[in-house]
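Morning!

This is the sequence you dropped in the shared folder:
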Amino acid sequence: MRIGIVGAGLTGLTAGYRLSKAGHKVTIFEKEDYLGGLASGFKEKNWHWSLERFFHHFFASDKAAKNLIKELDLSKRLFYTRLKTSIFENGKISQFDSPLSVLKFPHLSLLEKLRTGLVTLYLRSINNWQKLEKTTAENWLPRFYGKKPYQLLWQPLLESKFGQYTPKISMAWFWARIKKRSSKLGYLEGGLQVLINKLTEKIKENGGEILLNSEINNLDYLNKFNKVVVTIPTPEFLKMKPLLADYKNKLKKFHFVGALNLILVLKEKFLTDGTYWLNINEKEYPFVAVVEHTNFVAPKYYNDDHILYVGGYYSKNHRYFKMSKEEIFKIFKPYLKKINPKFNMLHVTCYMLHANSFAQPVIPTNYSKIMPSMKTPIKNLYLANQSLIYPWDRGVNYAKVRRRSY
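The structure's back. Tokens below.
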């Protein structure tokens, strides 16, 4: 069977690998000049490992990803480390990743801390997300965590991520974030580009073809294939012609927010307390996360430099998406100095900017009732993107297409 795949992110590459391994003739079309989508990596001069354009890691519970890595004979490259996660609140960094750190958190009373810990344990223990999807996170969280813990811990993050869509976000989405999180995070020696390269190698070994700089705008071009799998974001899929009007109108109801990452290559460590992931809970800040990659992976793999991601989520029409890296850095810099007053330009070797307009799907209440099907109304056309992995949130673990879906 001849199968066309649109998009060479991890979903498209994994589908291409599985289907070509099963004996199908696969052709993958990718509009960019690189593979991997949001997980794609790059390597600067004198770096031993590649670096992702958008920060990535594995959870210990990512069974599908671990099975794929094992199947590709990459298990020896996969390692897990216990990392420090903290919150920036009221001008102070506070660790917030264990029962003990919650008890030490300075901005809540003892009763509020105990309540926060117990509710979080409850969410991690339950599997019935169906009941949770009937209500919004905005309603459930203050009711069970309490007003102050919600306002300090969760409201700033929800609003920073979803903006105008915050009142619609399903509690099931929040539950999935808590449920999946593990105390140890994983990474591949060499970066995720190692996985992308291996998938590419296997597809070609199996007789598959990958075409870069090949954007597909018209579905009629794909008529030569017996089946077609589209793995690009839904808004990009909607630009393709021809699509049935009713189907197109249905998909238009789904919304996304974009993501932007400023990557700083530094001579000095930025988060000097060893924090890997810092959630920014100050509402006026223009970014929501500061992630020091080299507090996870040793700087020696990056020419002894320190790698810092500074990122946020924004609506697709946000002014940041029209700005240069210099303009973004100028906006972010004063806030970075508030986090680390010793930070200055002498520490910066270089910086780069990466953006994606459709990085995060908006998940409203009762999403399971309206979620698109993988099988579209168009004969032999299938949709497989991060809008269809509910209740789970986007991640490498869900970049898979089941052959039985065909």
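Headline: The CA atoms of residues 48 and 301 lie 5 Å apart.

More detail when I'm at my desk.
O.
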